[in-house]
Write a structure and sequence with these properties.
CATH superfamily of the largest domain: Ribonuclease H-like superfamily/Ribonuclease H
Distance between the termini: 128 Å
Structural class: alpha/beta
InterPro entries: Integrase_H2C2 (IPR041588), RNaseH-like_sf (IPR012337), RNaseH_sf (IPR036397)
Number of strands: 11
CATH topology of the largest domain: Nucleotidyltransferase, domain 5
GO molecular function, one term: nucleic acid binding
Largest sheet: 5 strands, mixed
CATH architecture of the largest domain: 2-Layer Sandwich
CATH class of the largest domain: Alpha Beta
Pfam family, one: Integrase_H2C2
Helix content: 25-40%
Order of helices and strands: EHHEHHHHEEHEHHEHHHEEEHEHHEH
Number of helices: 16
Strand content: 5-15%
Length: 427
Amino acid sequence: MTRHIDRVFFWTDSKCVIGWIRSTAIWYEPFVAHRASEIQTLTDPKSWRHVPGRLNVSDCATRSRFDERSELIPVRWFTGPDFLYQGEDNSPKEMPAEELQQHEEIKPSKIFVAKFNPERVPVYADVDLERFSSLSKAQRVAAQVHRFFSVFKGKKPESSACANVNEKHSATSSNPWKERNVSTKRSKLLPFTPYLDENNVTRVGGRLERAQLPYEVRHPILLPQKHRLTELIVGSYHRFEKHGGTDHVLAAIRQKFWIIRGRQEVKSFKRKCAQCKKERAKPGSQLLSELPIERITAMQPAFYHTSVDYFGPIEVKLTRNTKAKRYGALFTCMTTRCVHLEVDETLSTPDFLQALHKMMARRGEPRSIYSDNGTNFVGAVSELKSMMVRELNHSEELQTRLARIGEGITRKFQPPATLTGEEYTKV
């Protein structure tokens, strides 16, 4: 059987929901506005009524209490509330008109209140250490800031940056541990048994309390790794110790400070020090020129291309009371690096020609002979250089004698360059 439904009523125990449905949806937040707009589209806002919570059947599913004296499932869950069977006059009364007035959403305003704690600010916090390149500059500025607090506030502020009363010393006695949470059980400070002294400075504890040492040596100030104050202190000691080694600088620092991983901090600063970089710099290596063709020509007999040089003098004993000087003539093959030695009594030209005769008699006639014509001779060998330059370059008689010794021998004098004559200088 079909029945015609004239009106539809929706019941809810939330007055806020009824207010949202009967108001303009765009007044509210997106989450509420989207759902209120959908309800206003599908239903008539005036068909929504308010039911008190004690008569709301839906609460049986969410707020029912099950015990031995109550029903497992209330009967009204199936039958509905009683006022539905008693006519519209017995329905819950409509909400008052003042509660149904449409109002925009009243959003709570947020007021931020800054609470100032009049705590003494340490001098360390007033000085930006990143703006200073040396510890002495930071000390001077810290002393001026300290003096400012002393004059305008009547007394010095309580500062964890002070290790003693001296104002200029306060910058070096800063307590950067205040910036870090190091009071946990996993802190790296625990092996040092740290404590705060009377100036609120973190110091190393240990077992040296009864040692006959100064207080700062027994309990040095504890400093963190990779901190600007630590870097300034390391730089100050590094320069004071004349850019000494890592162990030397670290030993000087530990007379007053103990830095976590201090060796790494000293090494890191030493690598960045400009003067230390200059001292560690290595000289540049010279770019070698190409080898002459005589050095790399294959399938040639030994001493086909020969270079000659003198070495000495060598003191020899002729008799029991007689000593003399002898010089060595060194002939080396430029291709195979074979060596032939002859002994000359003097550096004269006849002795050189005699040595050349002996070499050619045993090794064969060379195709070319190279000799040094530069300034590589020192001491007694300077006489050979003067003679060779004077005789071989300007004496036609000597050139003729050389031509008789070996017809077709080409003599070449090497220029005074660094890498020339390395065939015999290395020998």
